[in-house]
Design goal:
single chain, mainly alpha, 15 helices
Length: 331
């Protein structure tokens, strides 16, 4: 497999994460206990993080104790809690529209923290995609809850910083253990807060168990492994734009399972989202700018901004990830 093919494969695999997250909106509304966002976030993170850590054991050392705690708080603890608050207090369309600003935020934070300057076309693609999300999911008569809006933007800010730090810091362990650290740290941060704020755990019926299993395995374990891998190997612009598939997946699931309406406005929104994702990709921009004499060299856009992994290690990464995911699936 060539370097170019490997990077496109990485981008495609990364897209699994926002698709899994987008389907979680329906699962949250339909099956989880109502009005318990902190409990839901803790259950989604801590048990599945411990499971992953049991499969790939290893404890942080030195500076990685506080780094794991910080990343777990930003990417898991605070993010999960705020997203659940937004999901409970806002209509799904409004929550998805607000979180669709995440690509722009990630690009700006990456510029400030790691010097990965966003291209104007990538920012424009993110804006087009966010507009498409609004058309795709917003409905008339939406009631804006200030706390829900604040939670959405807070989740975007927290996760944007956390995602960029994942690119900046190279962990001394494999990706599964690195993900487990963050899930456990985030879950431990949430545990006492959930008990103080929400009290004892609510009754859990069988549908709720199934909902938590889906969110924990597909929407947490698998999703975060492939998402962190994409962040470590690709530019922030490429990965963050793919995140716009989140509301697309939520809409598709809503139409298919909840009978939500899908008309001309939603179709136009879907087209804008996909256009924004593709038009803002650094690899595509470089392809358009290349002269015919450039031949078939690797797409520079999918290589820029990557500060980790040497080329040989990068080519070995897909096979190693396949083995890790196969091990996870067997357990």
């Amino acid at each position: 497999m060539s370097s170019m093919e490997n990077r496109w494969r990485t981008l495609g695999l990364t897209a699994v994460a926002p698709i899994a997250w987008g389907s979680g909106y329906y699962v949250t509304e339909a099956y989880l206990p109502p009005d318990r966002p902190l409990f839901g976030a803790m259950v989604r993170a801590l048990p599945f993080g411990l499971l992953l850590l049991a499969l790939r054991p290893g404890l942080p050392r030195g500076v990685w104790w506080w780094r794991a705690l910080l990343l777990g708080t930003l990417n898991i603890g605070a993010f999960f809690a705020l997203i659940f608050v937004a999901a409970y207090r806002l209509p799904g369309g409004m929550a998805a529209t607000l979180t669709a600003t995440a690509p722009i935020m990630v690009m700006l934070v990456a510029w400030l923290v790691i010097g990965e300057r966003p291209r104007a076309a990538s920012l424009a693609g993110a804006a087009v995609g966010a507009t498409g999300v609004a058309l795709l999911v917003l409905r008339s008569g939406v009631v804006v809850d200030p706390l829900g809006v604040a939670a959405s933007f807070g989740a975007v800010a927290m996760s944007s910083l956390g995602f960029v730090l994942v690119k900046r810091w190279q962990p001394p362990v494999d990706l599964l253990t690195f993900t487990a650290w963050q899930l456990v740290a985030g879950g431990l941060v949430l545990l006492p807060i959930a008990l103080v704020v929400e009290g004892a755990p609510p009754p859990i019926d069988l549908p709720a168990v199934g909902g938590f299993l889906y969110l924990g395995v597909a929407g947490t374990l698998v999703a975060y492994v492939v998402w962190f891998r994409g962040l470590r190997r690709l530019p922030a612009a490429a990965v963050s734009l793919v995140g716009l598939l989140n509301p697309v997946a939520g809409t598709v699931v809503g139409v298919a399972l909840a009978g939500e309406a899908f008309g001309a406005a939603q179709a136009a929104g879907l087209l804008l989202v996909l256009t924004g994702i593709l038009a803002g990709q650094p690899a595509i921009l470089d392809r358009l700018r290349r002269s015919p004499d450039d031949g078939d060299r690797d797409l520079v856009g999918l290589q820029s901004g990557v500060a980790v992994d040497d080329p040989e290690a990068g080519l070995a990464e897909p096979a190693r990830l396949d083995r890790d995911l196969e091990l996870l699936a067997r357990h």
